[in-house]
Amino acid sequence: MGDLGGPGIIAERLAAVKAELPAGVTLVAVSKTQPPEAIREAYAAGQRHFGENYAQEWRQKADALSDLAGLTWHFIGGLQTNKVKYLAPRAAWIHTLDRDELARELGKRYAAAGVTARVLVEVNLGGEAQKSGCAPDRVDGLVALARDLPGLEVAGLMCIPPPGDDPRPHFIRLRALRDRLGLRELSMGMSADWRIAVEEGATLIRIGTALFGERPSRD
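Given the sequence above, the corresponding structure tokens read:
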């Protein structure tokens, strides 16, 4: 069940992080591979935004936690077009839009469900071949396409800096790109670097290990 650390520890960790957050920054608790009980504990402590990486795992949790009013789901993992059907309409935020065909599928599914998804374009600032994300020189075109699709609201940008790099230059570049495009949201910063992300203008931070402890292995 993961390193929950005993009763109340998640609530304590949440309070410690939130105490450092300025107004206007939303904490997304990354609950991937964590059991529904851990999410319930965080919810009881006042947390409402949760992030999941795997569509089918998320769907099972969404079913198990459907009684929790006001819980907002963020999908933050790489997304195949054939998994979009699992997300609409319950995942309110999609952080990983990175290509035209995914935008079209998201728009189709969410429009058919009569809801609007708030999407963030994931930008591969480090040029990592093994990592998902839109190349910086293709962001303008993808944003323009998504803005014209029903069922989508282009809210902002997201990035994950390459491991081992100083994250600050990547966060600065993402903020500059966001500003040029006239968007609002910046999803950047995780357990190891969220304070730097907040300094550089993050509006959404994605924290898992620092709240829930080490993740259980995923079979």
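The longest helix spans residues 167-181. Try to locate this feature in the token string yourself.
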